[in-house]
Specification:
Layout lengths: L1 E9 L2 E10 L2 E5 L8 E3 L4 E4 L1 E6 L1 E2 L2 E2 L4 H12 L3 E8 L4 H15 L8 E2 L2 E4 L21 H8 L6 E6 L6 H10 L3 E4 L6 H9 L4 E2 L15 H8 L4 E5 L7 H10 L4 E4 L11 E5 L2 E6 L2 E3 L12 H11 L4 H4 L5 H6 L16 E4 L5 E6 L2 E2 L1
Parallel strand pairs: 1-4, 1-5, 6-9, 9-10, 9-11, 11-12, 12-13, 13-14, 14-15, 15-16
Antiparallel strand pairs: 1-2, 2-3, 5-20, 7-8, 17-18, 18-19, 20-21, 21-22
Helix pairs in contact: 1-2, 5-6
Length: about 375
């Protein structure tokens, strides 16, 4: 396949070129044509497929319900430009967590045509802080220990790519060191930690912050809190839910300017993503979605109904950031944080996940592992 007449996003800028795809890989980025199937992008943008490293559900299904639900997410996500993702567990029982991780493994081992690639799991809990649980049920929160991690994962530790822990938990440093040795990216979140506790966790290897601003101690000029610690520490990449509901425009812009090259856009979506307003469930509780905003009965936000294509548009059109600044937040940066070495960029040898975007950054076409879907 040869994609011609495209504005290709490569190495932080758009260039007028073409992309030669062989099988499921990018063979070359070149303006020269090839004697193969041609796709004319008509001057539209060609950007890497979006990677969501934090999503709980989409299209009416919840990843905690197992492989069939995760597969439905994969089918639905591929149509809106998410070409790879990490289904995220929630704070739940050991048994339910085991089941969810086994479902992730099952789909990983049997990726089908027209499905976004499941690349592993993000464990958002249950080793969190009880002071800032958000919508997570506090009765399932447990200590951040190696022994508890092994109970939660059983034979599935190798598929965990990212895990959220509370840096204020006692002796969390030994768990961070252990997880880093396993190749797992350690994220900090749902925490009342001080800035100093955030920096200390980074000293031991933590390098990610789960949905910055949400579920954590805020920024104050005399105690910077978890938010200030993450914003001021260059070792930490911060997730943002850019739905303009969880975080306002000004806070999104402040974070993006503070953390240049270290912002990771996520959806934090639940099963209501891609669905109409109505009644849904999350963590076995009723969730009401009105005007696209999901809340539990207590009034707390319960994840989102966001997708990454909308997050990208919001950061560009509403927050006012340059596209060259935003595109990596949904592509190369999440790929880096999930330790993915061949995704998130349009470069020779990389997986051929490519999106065609119009001038308003809407997804017009999706090329998934070298095939136009």
């Amino acid at each position: 396949m040869y994609i011609k007449n495209a504005r290709v996003f490569q190495d932080g800028r758009f260039i007028n070129s073409g992309i030669y795809v062989k099988d499921d890989r990018i063979e070359a980025v070149s303006p020269n044509g090839y004697d193969d199937i041609e796709i004319d992008f008509g001057g539209d943008m060609a950007v890497p497929g979006y990677i969501d490293v934090h999503t709980h559900g989409y299209g009416g299904t919840d990843m905690m319900d197992g492989a069939d639900s995760i597969r439905n997410m994969a089918r639905r996500y591929a149509k809106c430009g998410v070409t790879a993702f990490l289904p995220a567990t929630v704070t739940d029982s050991v048994e339910r967590t085991n089941k969810a991780l086994s479902g992730v493994r099952e789909v990983m081992c049997d990726t089908r045509e027209n499905e976004a690639q499941v690349l592993g799991a993000h464990m958002e809990g249950p080793m969190l802080g009880s002071k800032f649980p958000g919508a997570q049920p506090p009765q399932y929160i447990i200590d951040a220990t190696k022994e508890n991690f092994e109970k939660l994962t059983k034979n599935n530790a190798d598929i965990v790519r990212l895990i959220t822990v509370d840096p204020a938990q006692k002796d969390v440093e030994s768990l961070i060191v252990y997880l880093k040795k396993l190749g797992i990216t350690v994220s900090l979140g749902h925490t009342g930690a001080t800035a100093e506790e955030v920096h200390k966790a980074a000293d031991f290897g933590a390098s990610h912050m789960t949905h910055l601003f949400n579920g954590m101690s805020g920024l104050h000029h005399r105690e910077a809190g978890a938010v200030g610690g993450a914003l001021s520490d260059d070792r930490i990449t911060c997730e943002l839910i850019a739905d303009l509901i969880h975080v306002c425009k000004d806070a999104l812009k402040i974070a993006a300017l503070c953390k240049q090259g270290n912002i990771c856009l996520i959806s934090d979506s639940i099963m209501a993503g891609g669905m109409p307003d109505g009644e849904y469930t999350f963590l076995s509780s009723k969730v009401t979605v009105k005007d696209g905003i999901a809340r539990i009965p207590a009034g707390n936000l319960a994840g989102s109904t966001l997708t990454l294509d909308k997050a990208v548009r919001n950061m560009i059109n509403e927050v006012g950031l340059m596209p060259e600044f935003v595109i990596p937040m949904a592509t190369s940066i999440p790929a880096r944080q999930a330790n993915l070495l061949d995704r998130g960029m349009i470069r020779k040898g990389f997986i051929a996940d490519i999106l065609r975007l119009d001038d308003d950054f809407n997804v017009k076409e999706v090329i998934l592992r070298g095939k136009l879907i």
